[in-house]
C-alpha cells in the first residue's frame, strides 16, 4: 500500500493545459498515509482537474512528473490505482431514478462483490450514513445533504484506503457539514487517507493536516493551517478609547501604534501571545491609562487566502465570507 516514503499520494511536476490555457503548471503534492490533505483554491483554480488526474479520470499532460497513488505508478498501472481509491466527485454520482439501496448495490456489483457480501456492505453503509429509512425511496427524492451522504457511502463500498472528496460539503447546511466532518474524521481514524478540495477555509482549518493553496496553476503556499497563518502579517491588538484625552496619552505611550483619530482606536502589530499582550498592558499601566476595549486579531485562513489569491474585495464587490456566497454549481 505504501511507497517507501509512506506517502499515499505523491505527484511531481503535474501539468495540465486545455488548449493554450494552463490549468496546472507543474505542481508537487505529497500526502502522507492516514492524513487529510486539503487543496484550496478559488473557482476555476484547477482543484477538480487535479482530483480527476490523481484519480485516473483524465490524464496529465505529457512531460508531467511521476504520480504515485497507494504505491502504484499512475501512468504505468492505472488499474491498481483505481482499485486503491474511492472518488466522490464535485457533482453527484447518485442515480436519481433508482433507490439509495439500489445505488449501493450497483456499486457493490461494480466492485465485483459477491451478492451476499454486497448486500451486507450496502446495509452497513446505509446504516452508518443514517440512510436506512430513505434506502427504499428513489434517490431523486433525497435532500442535497442525503444525496451527498449517499455519494460518500457509495464511494466507500470498495473499502478504499485513499479517498478523493471534491467539495464534499458545498451546499450543505451547517449541521450536515458537521456530520460530514465527523464522517471524514472517522475515516481517517480508520487509517484512510483523504484528499479533500474545498472553498471553505474553516473546513480546511478544521479538518486538514496539511493545506495547499492553488493559484494561477501553482501551489501558492503549503503547510499546516498554523504555518499558513504565520505566513502573512496582520496580527494586531486593537485598543479602543471613549475619552479623547486618554486616547491621546495612549498614543503617546505606544508610539508604534497606528492611530485612528476618528474611531479613537490604536492598532499595535502583535502576534497576540500572552507575553506580547502583557507587555502592552504593562506600558499602559505604567502610564496610568485604561483602554475601554481590547481586542486581539490573529490572521485566519481567510486572510491567508486573500493574501495569496488576490486582493481583498473592494467596496461594491462581494466581501462575504466564502461560505455565505453562492455555491459554485
Ligand atoms: N474539459 C475542459 N476543457 C476546457 N477547459 C476546462 C475543462 N475542464 C476544466 N477546464 C478549465 O480548467 C480550469 C480549472 O477548472 P476546475 O474545474 O479544475 O476548477 P476548480 O478549482 O475545480 O473550480 P470550482 O471551485 O469552480 O469547482 C477552468 O478554467 C476550467 O474552465
Ligand atoms: Mg471543482
Automatic annotation (TrEMBL):
Protein's name according to its UniProt entry: ATP-binding cassette domain-containing protein
SMART domains: AAA (SM00382)
A cellular component term, taken from the record's GO annotations: plasma membrane
Annotated compartments: Cell membrane
The keyword NADP is assigned to this record: no
GO biological process: response to antibiotic
GO MF, one example: ATP hydrolysis activity
ABC transporter domain boundaries: 9-241
The species this protein was found in: Actinospica durhamensis
Alphabetic keyword roster: Antibiotic resistance, ATP-binding, Cell membrane, Membrane, Nucleotide-binding, Translocase, Transport
Amino acid at each position: 500500500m505504501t511507497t517507501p516514503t509512506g506517502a499515499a499520494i505523491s505527484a511531481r511536476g503535474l501539468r495540465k493545459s486545455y488548449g493554450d490555457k494552463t490549468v496546472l503548471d507543474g505542481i508537487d503534492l505529497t500526502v502522507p498515509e492516514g492524513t487529510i490533505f486539503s487543496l484550496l483554491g478559488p473557482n476555476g483554480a484547477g482543484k477538480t482537474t487535479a482530483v480527476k488526474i490523481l484519480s485516473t479520470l483524465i490524464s496529465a499532460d505529457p512531460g508531467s512528473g511521476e504520480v504515485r497513488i497507494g504505491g502504484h505508478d499512475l501512468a504505468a498501472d492505472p488499474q491498481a490505482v483505481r482499485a486503491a481509491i474511492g472518488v466522490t466527485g464535485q457533482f453527484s454520482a447518485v442515480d436519481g431514478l433508482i433507490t439509495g439501496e439500489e445505488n449501493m448495490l450497483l456499486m457493490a456489483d461494480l466492485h465485483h462483490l459477491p451478492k451476499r457480501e454486497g448486500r451486507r456492505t450496502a446495509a452497513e453503509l446505509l446504516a452508518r450514513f443514517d440512510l436506512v429509512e430513505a434506502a427504499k425511496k428513489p434517490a431523486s427524492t433525497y435532500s442535497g445533504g442525503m444525496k451527498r451522504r449517499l455519494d460518500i457511502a457509495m464511494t466507500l463500498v470498495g473499502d478504499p484506503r485513499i479517498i478523493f472528496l471534491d467539495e464534499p460539503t458545498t451546499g450543505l447546511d451547517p449541521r450536515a457539514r458537521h456530520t460530514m466532518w465527523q464522517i471524514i474524521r472517522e475515516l481517517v481514524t480508520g487509517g484512510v487517507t483523504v484528499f479533500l478540495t474545498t472553498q471553505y477555509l474553516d473546513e480546511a482549518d478544521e479538518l486538514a493536516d496539511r493545506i495547499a493553496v492553488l493559484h494561477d496553476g501553482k501551489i501558492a503556499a503549503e503547510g499546516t493551517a498554523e504555518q499558513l497563518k504565520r505566513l502573512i502579517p496582520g496580527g494586531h491588538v486593537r485598543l479602543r478609547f471613549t475619552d479623547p484625552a486618554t486616547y491621546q496619552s495612549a498614543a503617546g505611550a505606544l508610539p508604534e501604534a497606528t492611530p485612528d483619530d476618528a474611531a479613537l482606536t490604536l492598532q499595535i502589530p502583535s502576534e497576540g501571545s500572552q507575553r506580547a499582550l502583557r507587555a502592552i498592558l504593562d506600558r499602559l499601566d505604567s502610564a496610568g491609562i485604561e483602554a475601554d476595549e481590547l481586542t486581539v486579531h490573529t490572521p485566519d485562513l481567510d486572510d491567508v487566502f486573500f493574501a495569496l489569491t488576490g486582493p481583498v474585495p473592494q467596496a461594491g464587490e462581494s466581501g462575504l465570507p466564502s461560505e455565505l456566497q453562492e455555491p459554485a454549481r
